[in-house]
Amino acid sequence: MAVSAHDVAAYILSRRTRMSAMKLQKLVYYAQAWSLVWDDRRLFPERIEAWANGPVVRELYERHRGQFEVDGWPWGNADRLDADARETVDAVIAYYGGRNAQWLSDLTHSEAPWIDARAGVPDGERSDREISLACMMEYYSSLREDGGEG
Asked: How far apart are the C-alpha atoms of 21 and 37, rounded to whole Å?
């Protein structure tokens, strides 16, 4: 069975129990981004949208809507991630997991994938535009080559 964003969320919360819903969204986003770069594959099929507060997987939002914090993800199965996926998500957690949700949101706002997807959308306005996998791959690959996060 294919891995879903719910499975990635479940895995993240199995490693770092309680966090804000916004932080979970950003960690799932970075897991997808770095999977594209390091593993040359998308981690999950759900689209990531460029919302006002940063990247959001709508399917996850539908489950945590109205909750500030989440401490488990019964809609996913962490065991569905293979060894490469677990290694990638663990590296994302190691690098980004100690940061707070606002720092992660601010970071995504400074990066091309979110900026490009929101081109022409006024600050703070709702948008369901997709952050393209190609843009994510191009941008995060360039960080890796520049000696950045990767």
From this structure: 25
What's this model's pTM, rounded to 2 decimal places? 0.93
List pLDDT tens digits, range 67-111.
899 999 999 999 999 999 999 999 999 999 999 999 999 999 999
At which residue do the structure tokens 């594209």 appear?
A: 36
Instruction: Compute the CA torsion angle 112, 116, 119, 121 (nearest 10 deg).
Output: -80
Residue 150 lies in a domain: no
Residue 49's Cα: distance from chain center in Å? 10
Q: How far apart are CA 104 and CA 27, in angstroms?
A: 8
Range of the domain at 89: 5-145
Give 13-55 pLDDT, tens digit per residue: 999 889 999 999 999 999 999 999 999 999 999 999 999 999 9
> Can you tell me the distance from the alpha carbon of 4 to that of 80, in angstroms, rounded to the nearest whole number?
9
Number of structural domains (the chain) is 1
Q: Residue 5 in contact with residue 57, Cβ under 8 Å?
A: yes
